[in-house]
Automatic annotation (TrEMBL):
Domain Maestro-like HEAT-repeats: start-end pairs: 603-850
Keywords: Repeat
The name this protein goes by in its record: Maestro heat like repeat family member 5/pseudo
Residues covered by the MROH2B-like N-terminal HEAT-repeats domain: 145-264
Domain spans labelled MROH2B-like HEAT-repeats: 272-577
Presence of keyword Nucleotidyltransferase: no
One cellular component (GO) term of this entry: cytoplasm
Domain Maestro/Maestro-like HEAT-repeats, residue spans: 1046-1312
Source organism of the structure: Equus caballus (Horse)
Biased composition (Polar residues): 675-688, 695-704
Presence of keyword Repeat: yes
PANTHER family: MAESTRO HEAT-LIKE REPEAT FAMILY MEMBER 5 (PTHR23120:SF6), MAESTRO-RELATED HEAT DOMAIN-CONTAINING (PTHR23120)
Length: 1319
């Protein structure tokens, strides 16, 4: 600060001032002049106009003058002011001057009068200084300086005369006169030797005086001496040397002047500073003798340890004294003397910063000649008891504790000074110095003082090493530990503020240390990079940083501070690549930037991409990489920059695009394609847009935007393209591995929380696949990664682009993608489902996907048995087979696969039936899928999924009649156990035959290859279906009778007993034995007579046998016996035995099915008469009866050709409410009048039923009929039936269900109204 004050005080130069004519004339003879006006009058009235012009006055702060000294009416003794007024009469008498003889020379009157006026005015202004306030004093000084520039001798002589003629003036007045004299000497161009000697004597005389103003007065006199030094420093230095070397400890004012001379470089011209330093060194040599003088050395130590007036700033005399003391110790020959004085110095207080710096400076200067002794003293002091105490004490309790609290900081600074002063001898000492620095850094109490001292010391050491030519060939052992300490220091910096140069200095030091040998290992360098990048890039926005400085008296320039810190970071990255210009090093640097390029905070991305761009620009400009060495993972960088080209922040966009341009140039240069690129480079000129200003004004960017000429050059003309075009152009020059990295980067960007990153990543992914999809590798892994990220893509356009990319990939990589997608399709989520749909978005792709899924479905390895020596199957294959089954189940209802599913129906049917058998063989637990999480247990088990796949296939491909047969029979349960599985397959095949399925021929065509399969389960399934298909006439169109016999005969030799039994059963089919039909019909009458047996199980078995006979008769049918079977079977619909009711309804349904297409009119009557009983038995108490009633009712509706067959089936299968009752009633009662009568009569008969549910259902049925056809009912119902209805509805009013009670009440009222009307 003192140096700054002195610099400010001499800011005005006089090189361009033109001396006036007055300066060339000698002073006139004794002049008497009487002034007019009061003492406070304005002297401007007596001056020529030209004498008033002057530059703006600036008071020199080097005088350190308290403000109250310039106030004449405050804190000044009244008697002093009164005495000053008495000394100055109204008439000003000027002493005879040295130039009085010149007055005798004739002069022009005008010039003489002008000089006289100026002298008088100057004298008056000097007198007025005493009573002037601070503002008036500044004005007076400015006027006198103006006069001095025109007439320096006149002003100097007037000031001198004032001192000599007015010896009684006050100390305050003299102080102000010295201040004026300093300003005048500093303002003139040259100082005559006479005045030089005169004022040197005047200054020396007053600078050691003791006054009431104390040191302020002495400093004012000393500043006059400093001002004279600007004209003749050697004369002043000679006087100073004489005074210092008297043997008496120098007065503080002498040290003050020497301190100013040492610290202020502006005092000396070129080369003079070195001369002063040499003279100072000689003075130190001559002062060595005083070290052994007890009084002198004690006064020296007292002066060094004396507390300063302000602890933030050290007075020049004390700063110089530390320097001078160090020079003396440096010159001392006796090492013991050096040790004694250094130890005494170190034992002084270390409480204040300037004191610690001064001690360190003295120690460092002594080390320039006594390095060993200084090292020993520092070691001894560092291990002393006070130092050990300060290391372990965090809270000082008294002033003595404060004295030692920061002693470790002094030691750190001392080590730094030792490194600086040791110069060429420093290298062998570096490791020792570093070890001690690191020790005190880690074991001292952490605070800002320790941090600043450590950083300053290390910075001095680093500079000392860098100045040594042999440093790069020297190997250091402590650099690694030093880097660790610097990283700790950076980590302890406040993450939300930037007020100092600590970060910048630390990064510079790290960069310098990394240049030394040995270089840091990759792990250490990686941590160093992470620490530095986090410390700089993670800082808040500059506006936020500025808010943290709002309470500072002099807040720092945050923009400039951050720019310097960021520049230091960029220089470190560039330094690393210069030291190790390899692709590995570049990859290491970029990999640490990737984290910040992907940051969710805009300002962090902006900073990171700027550093990345700067590094690429440096590489592009310096060409330091080996052309033979290819880049590593450069595709990742292209992807990161490509995403940031669409960043909302304009500055980030610009830097990213510029970075891609530099990267493009590096690629083409590295791969020897410069000539090609120059030929392809677009030659369009850049049109600056409206966004250019904002491009450079967002975030941390507060600089002016570059001109278009700066932004667009031939070298980076690629930046004229749009971001998508740039990326496509760069992709052309990427290798396959780099292109894969690019894709991985794009896929990783899909998982970002930033919408722009997701959209940009999706766009890049699509562009890459469009351009290079056919040649890509590792597509399976890419597909898995896309699935993982797809759940994060919530932007519709981005999701659409990703799915389109998958569709394009499927053109050339369907097998890989299907295999990959199966890995996450065991339990198919919505995102996986969308990916499968994308795979089949194209017609050819859907067929191929389906074919591959079927191939995977056939990969069905079984777990190895304990006794089996074969290797166990791969779990992956097993899971993929199950996943293929689940995927087929989900895709059957999609629009993309609808056509392909219909075309592949025969293969799918056989494959899924075989898969169900395989799942049953695995005997998996009936819980979640293998590997499925507990929270996903709602999804069907493998057994359930295989069954659902079959159901979905039937229902989505138009085979709902087959589905209905199995659903209404409850036949699906047969597929859930291995022992009932054949029955389920048989029922399905039988349903296809009975419904005359159009796919029978296509399925039959697939049976023959499957019967030759190596898998037993495939042969078994095919044989089960073939046995049932023998009853279909369509089979013979594909498989002639003789061929069928050959196939069955061959299967008799199958290794599976089940298949042999099925083959034998098939060979007994009526197709091959037509006479068998007559034999079976002859057995029907005895079986019908058996219906009336008393044993329920016997009757049930007989009815089942009749059903089996009807099935075996096939197309031949029962003929005329059908009517008898129908009549006898219907009579058991209301049997009290549940089993017989169920068997009777099942038999009736089989009979209806057997007679389909050739029914008799009498049989149709039986069907009509069975409809109401079957409908009412839907509410039977026995579940088996309900099932058989439902299926028989459905078969009857098919025979009667009801419309809305599918709706009827759905109602029967799943509807249970009033809506189902109403629909079935409507379909039944609106057929014809004849049927209406039959149905109403049957419903009335059920009012006598003993089953409450049946009776209730009949009442509801009749109630619906009365509501819709009241007149028809009234004509058909007699009085007995009417009374029965009334009684029934009265009973129904007591039903527990509120709905039934309300319905009964309304119906009862309605019936009474109808009965009351005349017919």
């Amino acid at each position: 600060m003192d140096k700054q004050r002195l610099e400010k005080s001499h800011r005005h130069t006089t090189a361009d001032r033109a001396p006036s004519a007055l300066s060339q004339n000698p002073r006139p003879a004794k002049l008497q002049a009487r002034t007019s006006g009061s003492p406070g009058g304005d002297p401007n009235t007596l001056l020529p106009t030209g004498a008033l012009a002057s530059p703006c006055f600036r008071r020199s702060p080097s005088c350190r003058i308290p403000s109250h000294i310039f106030e004449s009416n405050t804190r000044a003794p009244q008697d002093s002011a009164h005495r000053d007024r008495q000394v100055h009469p109204a008439t000003i008498v000027l002493r005879k001057s040295q130039s009085s003889q010149a007055a005798l020379v004739p002069k022009e009157h005008k010039m003489f009068m002008e000089e006289a006026y100026n002298a008088a005015i100057c004298f008056k202004m000097l007198r007025d200084l005493n009573s002037a306030d601070s503002l008036r004093m500044k004005y007076i000084i400015k006027k006198i300086k103006n006069m001095a520039q025109g007439a320096p001798n006149l002003v100097l002589e007037t000031i001198h005369d004032y001192f000599v003629d007015n010896m009684e003036i006050s100390t305050r007045h003299k102080f102000r006169l010295f201040h004026v004299l300093e300003a005048v000497i500093g303002a003139i161009d040259s100082l005559e030797e006479t005045w030089e000697k005169t004022f040197i004597e005047l200054a020396l005389e007053n600078m050691t005086k003791s006054t009431d103003l104390e040191e302020v007065y002495q400093d004012a006199a000393s500043n006059v001496l400093v001002a004279i030094c600007r004209h003749s420093w050697r004369a002043v230095a000679q006087h100073l040397e004489t005074e210092v070397l008297t043997g008496v400890f120098p007065h503080r004012s002498l040290l003050y002047v020497m301190g100013i001379l040492t610290s202020n470089k502006q005092i000396f011209n070129n080369g003079e500073k070195a001369c002063w330093e040499e003279q100072l060194a000689q003075m130190a040599i001559k002062s060595v003798q005083f070290l052994n003088t007890d009084v002198w050395s004690k006064e020296l130590l007292w002066a060094l340890s004396r507390p300063d007036r302000t602890h933030q700033e050290q007075p020049p005399e004390k700063a110089f004294l530390f320097l001078y003391f160090g020079l003396i110790l440096q010159a001392e020959e006796n090492s013991n003397t050096v040790r004694r004085h250094l130890l005494a110095l170190l034992e002084t207080s270390h409480q204040w910063p300037k004191q610690r710096e001064g001690i360190a400076l003295a120690v460092g200067l002594a080390a320039a000649r006594h390095l060993d002794q200084v090292w020993a003293i520092l070691e001894q002091f560092g291990r002393s008891t006070p130092i050990k105490w300060s290391l372990h004490s965090c809270s000082p309790k008294n002033s003595e504790d404060l004295r030692w609290k920061w002693a470790s900081s002094t030691i750190l600074l001392a080590y730094g000074q030792v490194a600086v002063r040791a110069k060429a001898h420093i290298l062998p000492w570096v490791d020792n110095i570093l070890s001690r620095m690191i020790y005190f850094f880690h074991y001292s109490s952490w605070d800002e003082t320790l941090k600043e001292s450590f950083l300053t010391a290390v910075l001095m050491l680093a500079r000392a090493i860098s100045r040594n030519e042999g440093a790069h060939s020297y190997e250091f052992s402590q650099t690694s530990e030093l880097l660790e300490s610097l990283m700790v220091l950076l980590d302890k910096e406040p993450p939300d503020s930037l007020c100092t140069l600590t970060r910048q200095q630390t990064i510079h030091i790290m960069s310098s240390i990394c240049k030394l040998r040995p270089p840091p290992d990759p792990e250490k360098k990686s941590r160093l990079l992470s620490t530095c990048l986090r410390s700089v890039l993670a800082l808040p926005l500059l506006d936020v940083l500025e808010k943290h400085t709002c309470l500072y008296l002099e807040p720092p320039d945050i923009q400039a501070l951050y720019n310097k810190t960021s520049e230091a970071l960029d220089q470190m990255l560039q330094s690393f690549i210069i030291q190790n210009p390899t692709a590995d090093e570049l990859h290491l640097l970029l990999s640490h930037l990737y984290v910040w390029l992907a940051s969710e905070k805009a300002h962090e991305r902006q900073r990171a991409v700027h550093s990345c761009k700067t590094l690429l620009e440096f590489l592009n400009r310096n060409i330091c990489l080996d052309p033979k060495e290819d880049f590593k993972r450069i595709g990742q960088l292209v992807g990161m920059l490509g995403i940031l080209c669409q960043d909302p922040d304009k500055a980030t966009q610009g830097s990213s695009l510029e970075g891609v341009g530099h990267l493009y140039q590096l690629l083409i240069r590295q791969r020897g394609m410069s000539s090609q690129v120059e030929a392809q480079t677009p030659k369009q000129s850049s049109q600056p847009g409206a966004d250019e200003a904002s491009l450079w004004s967002s975030g941390d960017q507060k600089t002016t935007p570059p001109t278009p000429q700066e932004m667009v050059t031939p070298k980076d003309s690629i930046s004229q393209l749009s971001s998508s075009q740039v990326i496509k152009e760069v992709m052309k020059h990427l290798t396959m591995a780099e292109l894969t990295d690019f894709l991985w980067t794009a896929i990783d960007g899909l998982g970002s929380a930033s919408p722009f990153r997701v959209q940009a990543a999706a766009d890049m992914l699509l562009a890459a696949v469009q351009e290079h999809g056919a040649t890509l590798e590792t597509v399976a892994n890419l597909g898995r990664a896309i699935h993982l990220q797809l759940c994060s893509v919530r932007i519709p356009q981005a999701r659409e682009n990703v799915l389109l990319a998958v569709t394009l990939l499927a053109r050339n990589h369907t097998p890989e993608l299907v295999a990959a997608f199966l890995d996450f399709s065991i339990s198919l989520d919505s995102h996986a489902f969308q990916l499968w749909r994308a795979l089949g978005a194209e017609r050819s792709g859907s067929r191929l996907v389906l074919a591959i899924l079927l191939a995977w479905l056939r990969e069905r390895p079984l777990p190895a048995q304990a006794t089996d020596s074969s290797p166990p199957p791969k779990e992956e294959t097993c899971l993929r087979s199950l996943a293929a089954m689940n995927t087929l189940r989900q895709l059957q209802g999609t629009q993309e696969f609808k056509k392909a599913m219909q075309e592949a129906y025969p293969m799918l049917l056989l494959a899924l039936l075989t898969q169900m058998h395989y799942v049953l063989e695995l005997d998996l637990p009936r819980g979640p899928w293998p590997g499925q999480e507990a929270q996903e247990a709602a999804a069907p088990s493998p057994q359930g999924a295989s069954l659902e796949a079959l159901k979905s296939l039937l229902s989505t491909t138009g085979h709902w009649q087959d589905f209905a047969h199995l659903e209404l029979q409850g036949a699906w349960d047969h597929f859930t156990a291995i022992h009932t599985y054949p029955q389920g397959v048989g029922l399905l095949a039988r349903a296809m035959v009975q419904n005359r399925c159009v796919q029978i021929k296509a399925v039959a065509s697939q049976l023959l290859p499957n019967l030759l399969s190596k898998e037993e389960r495939e042969r078994k399934v095919s044989m089960l279906i073939l046995v049932e298909f023998l009853y279909s006439p369509a089979l013979l169109e594909v498989l002639p009778e003789q061929t069928a016999l050959v196939v069955l005969a061959r299967s008799l030799r199958d290794s599976s007993p089940e298949i042999r039994v099925l083959s034998l059963e098939g060979m007994g089919n009526i197709l091959f034995h037509p006479a068998k039909g007559i034999l079976l019909r002859r057995q029907l009458p005895p079986f019908l007579n058996g219906f009336f047996q008393n044993s329920e199980p016997v009757v049930v078995r007989i009815m089942g046998t009749v059903s089996d006979v009807l099935h075996r008769l096939g197309a031949h049918g029962a003929g005329a016996q059908s009517l008898g079977i129908a009549v006898k079977t219907r009579s058991f619909f209301d049997d009290e035995r549940d089993g017989i009711r169920a068997a009777a309804m099942a038999l009736f349904g089989d009979l209806v099915e057997a007679m389909a297409g050739r029914e008799l009119s009498s049989l149709r009557t039986q069907v009509h008469q069975s409809m109401v009983p079957l409908l009412l038995h839907l509410q039977d108490r026995c579940p088996d009866v309900v099932t058989q009633a439902r299926f028989a009712f459905y078969r009857c509706t098919v025979l009667l050709r009801w419309r809305l067959q599918h709706t009827t089936f759905c109602t029967l299968a799943w509807e249970r409410g009033l809506s189902a009752r109403h629909f079935l009633w409507t379909r039944l009662m609106t057929r014809s009048q004849e049927e209406f009568s039959i149905h109403l009569a049957q419903a009335l008969s059920y009012l006598h039923s003993r089953q409450h549910h049946m009776k209730t259902w009949a009442v509801l049925f009749i109630g619906y009929t009365i509501c819709c056809h009241p007149q028809a009912v009234s004509r058909m119902v007699n009085s007995v039936d009417r009374n029965l209805l009334l009684c029934t509805f009265e009973d129904l009013k007591k039903a527990p269900e509120p709905g039934l009670r309300e319905f009964a009440t309304r119906q009862l009222s309605f019936i009474q109204e109808v009965a009351a009307k005349p017919h």
